[in-house]
Specification:
heterodimer; A: four-stranded antiparallel β-sheet; 4 helices; B: 365 residues; alpha+beta; Fusion Protein Consisting Of Minor Coat Protein, Glycine Rich Linker, Tola, And A His Tag, Chain: A, Domain 2; three-stranded antiparallel β-sheet
C-alpha cells in the first residue's frame, strides 16, 4: 500500500513538472545582437539669457556644449531649423512630444545669468523618450574669461550622464608647436584647451623641445629640451611658466620622462656609454634608481594607473617590442608579438589597455591592446602616426600625424578607441607630441 | 459455577417480577368532568329576554369642554447679524530674491513635474440594474379567483387589496400639520374569463426525471501494466493523475493560446526593435554588457512603457548594465511608439516579452 502511494506521488509529480514548461512558454524569449552604432541625436536650444548682459554668452555657451558633444562622434546635434518648441524660460515644462517628433533623444536646457564680471550657468538634461530629467540640474559659476570652461563642464555632465563614462571636455593638452619647413622646424611648448582653443606658449623657440608630459594634477609639465646641446629633462610650472632641470649625471642624456600616478616620482630613459636604460627618480631628492640593465635600448616608460607596473619598449628581442615590468624593476614580460615594431606605449587611465605606435608594412599605426597583449586593435594607418596620449576618461586617444613629402604637415588628431571618429584638432600651425591633462578641478 | 446460575436466575426473576407487578401501584389518571348548573325558564321569559331593546334618549345640551386659550406666540427675538470679522490683510509674497549662490556647483531647483500623467479615470461602476426580460405576453394569464367586467392586473405584491382604489397620498409640503400616511390599495385581482383547469395549456415542465448517463467503461490497462500493478496501486495512480491533470488544467490560462509564433514573425519583430537599438553613445564597458529586458505588450502592439525593466545582466558592472538597459529601453519605446507588427491572433504568445540585448559583438571594431 505504501509502495503504491509512493509510486502515485512520483507519477503525479512528473505530470506536474511536465506542465511547467507550458507555463514558461507564456513569455516570449528572444535574443538581439548586432546593434546600430550611430550618434545619438540631441537638441541644445540657445540657453536662456536671464538678463541683457548674459545674452552675449547664452548662445556661445550652448554652441560650445553642442560642439563638445558632437566632437565625440557619439552624438549628433539636431538642427535648430527642425525645432518645434522654443525654450524661453528655464523652468518651463518641457514639451516632450515636440522633441520626440524631431527624434531628439536628449535635450539640454540651460540659462545664463551675468552679474558684473561673474557668470552663472545652469542646465538640465532630459531623456526625451523617457519623459524625465536625467539627474539633477547643475549650476556653475565663474568669471567672463572662464565661460568656455563652464560650457565644457556642462557638456561633461551631459556626456557622463548619457554614456556612463567619465568626462574629458574640461581638460587641456600640452604639445609641441611646430613652425617652419621640415628641415628648419622651430619647436616650442604650448598648452591649449582639449579642443584647440586658448593656445598659450610655455617656452620660446630658441631650443628644441620634445615629449611634454603632464603631472597627475595638471599643474606641472615634464619635457625634454636640447637647451644645453644634449637632451635634458625639465619640470615646468604651468601657472608661472617657471622651470627647472631635473638632477642629471654628467655625460649622460636623459629623455622620455613621465610622472608616476602620485606625482612624486619620474621614470625616464638615460643613455650612457651607448646604452639606454630606464631609471626612476624621486623628484624631491633627485636620487636615480636604475630599473633595467640590458644591453639593448629600453625607453618610453609609462606607469600603470596604480603605480605598480611600468610598460616600456625594448629591442632586447632583436626587434622593438612592448614589455611590462614591476615599478621597482626586475624581470619584464613581453606583451606584443605581432609583426612590425611597437613603440611609445602608454597605459590607459582605466588600466585595461595600452596604446602604442606600430610600424608595419611601411606605415605607422596607432593601436591598443590589453595589458596581457591580447585583443590588439589598430585604430589608424598613415605615413606617420606617433605619440598616443589618453584622454582623462580613457575613451579617446590623441596623437600626431605627419604627411609625406618635404612640405608635409604635422598636426594633432584624435580618435575614439572604437576606431571611429578620427578628427583633426584645430591648431594654428603644426603640432606634435600631444599630452592630455587630467580633468581640471 | 452454580452460584453464578443462582445469581443470574435471581436477577432475571426480579426483573420479570418488576415488569409484571411494578405498574400495579401506580395511580391511573382520572378523566376530569366539567359540571354546569342550569335553570329552567318559561317561553314568555325567553321571549322577553330575546326582544330588541329601545334606543337610549339623546341628551340635547351637552356642555362643550372649554378649549384651552392659546396665547399669542411671542415674536422670535431679532437675531442681530454677527459683526463682520475683519479680513486679515493678505500678505504679499515677497518677490524671490535673486541671490547668487555661494557654492559654485549647486543643483538649481527642479522644475515642476513637466508632464503630469493624466489622471487615471476609473471606469464608472456599472450600477445599471440588469434588465430582465419582460414576462411573455403570449402566455395565458394565471387564472384569477375573481371575474370582473374589466380584468384587473395583479397588484404589486405588497399592495393591500381593497374595494376602492386608493392612490398614495403625496405629502403636503405647504402645511406643517402632519397627516396620516395612507397606504396605497388596489382592487382585487380579476380576469375576464374563467380559466378552468381543463383549459390550462399543457405544462412544459418535465413530467419525469431522466436517468443519468451510463458511466463510461474504464479503459482496460495493458497486460504489462496490469501484471505489474495491483488494483490498489492502479486506483491510487488514477487518483493522482486526475489531481495532476486538474492542476494542469488550472494552469492552462497562463499557457499561450493558439499556434506558436513562427521564426519569421520573431525575426520581423527583432528587426523592428533593432532599427531603434542604438549603442553609439554607450561606454565601452556598456558595450560589453548583455542585459535582459522584460516588458509587457498591449494588443495594439505597443509596449507598456511602465512595465519595461531589466531582469538581469552579464559581463559588466551595474553602472554599465544601467547604460546598456537605457539604450535597450529607448529602442523598445521608440520603435514601439506606433505599435509593433505582431500577429494579433497570437497575442497570448507575445503578451510578455523578454529580450536579451547583446551588443558585445560590435565593440572595439
Amino acid at each position: 500500500m505504501i509502495l503504491s502511494r509512493i509510486t502515485a506521488f512520483l507519477l503525479a509529480a512528473a505530470v506536474v513538472l511536465m506542465s511547467l514548461p507550458m507555463a514558461a512558454l507564456a513569455e516570449l524569449n528572444l535574443e538581439l545582437d548586432d546593434p546600430n552604432i550611430e550618434p545619438m541625436p540631441f537638441a541644445v536650444p540657445t540657453f536662456v539669457a536671464e538678463n541683457a548682459e548674459a545674452s552675449a554668452f547664452a548662445n556661445q555657451i550652448a554652441r560650445v556644449v553642442a560642439e563638445d558633444l558632437t566632437g565625440t562622434g557619439l552624438f549628433r546635434e539636431i538642427s535648430k531649423d527642425a525645432y518645434i518648441s522654443t525654450v524661453t524660460n528655464f523652468n518651463s515644462p518641457v514639451q516632450y512630444a515636440d522633441w520626440k517628433a524631431i527624434n531628439a533623444q536628449a535635450l539640454i536646457v540651460g540659462a545664463v545669468n551675468m552679474n558684473g564680471n561673474n557668470v552663472t550657468v545652469k542646465f538640465r538634461l532630459f531623456d526625451v523618450f523617457s519623459g524625465a530629467a536625467l539627474g539633477d540640474g547643475l549650476q556653475f559659476g565663474g568669471t567672463t574669461t572662464s565661460w568656455r570652461r563652464m560650457a565644457h563642464k556642462v557638456a561633461d555632465a551631459a556626456y557622463s550622464r548619457i554614456t556612463g563614462e567619465g568626462a574629458y571636455f574640461d581638460s587641456r593638452v600640452v604639445f609641441v608647436s611646430e613652425t617652419g619647413p621640415k628641415n628648419e622646424r622651430k619647436k616650442r611648448l604650448a598648452i591649449m584647451d582639449y579642443d584647440g582653443a586658448n593656445v598659450q606658449f610655455l617656452t620660446d623657440s630658441r631650443s628644441l623641445v620634445l615629449a611634454p608630459r603632464f603631472s597627475p594634477t595638471g599643474d606641472r609639465v615634464l619635457y625634454t629640451s636640447y637647451e644645453s646641446g644634449f637632451p635634458k629633462i625639465y619640470v615646468l610650472d604651468v601657472a608661472s611658466v617657471g622651470r627647472r632641470a631635473l638632477a642629471d649625471q654628467p655625460g649622460t642624456m636623459s629623455f622620455a620622462p613621465r610622472f608616476s600616478p602620485n606625482g612624486q616620482t619620474v621614470v625616464y630613459s638615460l643613455s650612457s656609454g651607448g646604452n639606454t636604460d630606464i631609471y626612476r627618480m624621486d623628484i624631491g631628492s633627485g636620487a636615480p634608481v636604475r630599473l633595467t640593465s640590458e644591453p639593448s635600448i629600453e625607453t618610453a616608460p609609462s606607469f600603470s594607473p596604480d603605480g605598480k607596473q611600468i610598460v616600456f619598449e625594448s629591442d632586447r628581442s632583436g626587434n622593438q617590442q612592448l614589455y611590462i615590468m614591476s615599478a621597482n624593476g626586475g624581470e619584464a614580460r613581453r606583451i606584443s608579438f605581432g609583426t612590425g615594431r611597437y613603440g611609445t606605449p602608454v597605459w590607459s587611465p582605466r588600466g585595461d589597455l595600452v596604446a602604442f605606435t606600430k610600424q608595419s608594412g611601411g606605415r605607422f599605426h596607432i593601436g591598443v591592446m590589453r595589458v596581457d597583449g591580447s585583443d590588439e586593435q589598430l585604430l589608424t594607418s598613415s605615413f606617420l602616426d606617433e605619440g598616443p596620449s589618453w584622454s582623462p576618461n580613457g575613451r579617446v586617444i590623441m596623437f600626431m600625424r605627419e604627411s609625406a613629402g618635404a612640405g608635409g604637415e604635422v598636426g594633432l588628431y584624435s580618435i575614439d578607441i572604437s576606431g571611429r571618429n578620427l578628427r583633426r584638432v584645430t591648431t594654428d600651425g603644426g603640432a606634435s607630441d600631444p599630452a592630455w591633462s587630467p580633468l581640471l578641478k | 459455577m452454580a452460584t453464578g446460575h443462582y445469581i443470574s436466575g435471581i436477577g432475571h426473576g426480579a426483573l420479570l417480577a418488576w415488569a409484571l407487578i411494578g405498574g400495579l401501584f401506580s395511580r391511573v389518571p382520572e378523566d376530569k368532568m366539567e359540571v354546569a348548573e342550569v335553570s329552567i325558564i318559561s317561553s314568555e321569559e325567553f321571549a322577553a329576554l330575546s326582544a330588541p331593546q329601545p334606543a337610549p334618549d339623546v341628551v340635547p345640551d351637552v356642555p362643550t369642554p372649554p378649549q384651552p386659550v392659546i396665547e399669542d406666540t411671542p415674536e422670535p427675538p431679532v437675531v442681530e447679524a454677527p459683526p463682520e470679522v475683519p479680513t486679515p490683510p493678505v500678505e504679499e509674497t515677497p518677490p524671490p530674491v535673486d541671490v547668487a549662490p555661494d557654492v559654485v556647483e549647486a543643483p538649481p531647483p527642479l522644475p515642476d513635474p513637466v508632464e503630469q500623467p493624466p489622471e487615471v479615470v476609473e471606469p464608472p461602476v456599472d450600477n445599471t440594474p440588469v434588465v430582465l426580460a419582460p414576462p411573455a405576453t403570449t402566455s395565458s394569464p394565471r387564472p384569477a379567483p375573481r371575474v370582473a367586467p374589466t380584468p384587473v392586473e395583479a397588484p404589486p405584491p405588497d399592495t393591500a387589496v381593497a374595494e376602492e382604489v386608493q392612490e398614495v397620498a403625496a405629502p403636503d409640503t405647504e402645511t406643517s400639520t402632519p397627516s396620516e400616511v395612507e397606504e396605497a390599495t388596489a382592487p382585487e385581482e380579476a380576469t375576464d374569463a374563467i380559466v378552468t383547469e381543463a383549459d390550462e395549456p399543457p405544462s412544459s415542465a418535465p413530467t419525469r426525471s431522466s436517468r443519468p448517463a451510463v458511466r463510461p467503461q474504464r479503459p482496460t490497462p495493458s497486460v504489462e501494466t496490469a501484471a505489474a500493478t495491483t488494483d490498489s496501486t492502479r486506483d491510487a495512480i488514477a487518483e493522482a493523475l486526475a489531481e495532476a491533470q486538474q492542476d494542469t488544467a488550472a494552469a492552462q490560462p497562463t499557457a499561450p493560446a493558439g499556434p506558436p509564433m513562427t521564426g519569421g514573425e520573431k525575426d520581423a519583430f527583432l528587426v523592428d526593435v533593432r532599427r531603434c537599438w542604438n549603442v553609439g553613445a554607450l561606454s565601452t564597458a556598456a558595450l560589453q554588457t548583455k542585459v535582459v529586458v522584460r516588458f509587457e505588450m498591449a494588443q495594439t502592439g505597443k509596449p507598456n512603457v511602465g512595465s519595461i525593466r531589466m531582469t538581469g545582466f552579464e559581463g559588466g558592472s551595474e553602472a554599465s548594465a544601467k547604460q546598456a538597459y537605457e539604450a535597450a529601453r529607448r529602442a523598445i519605446i521608440r520603435c514601439g511608439a506606433t505599435g509593433y507588427k505582431l500577429p494579433i491572433e497570437k497575442y497570448e504568445q507575445w503578451k510578455i516579452i523578454n529580450i536579451t540585448f547583446n551588443p558585445s559583438n560590435r565593440s572595439l571594431r
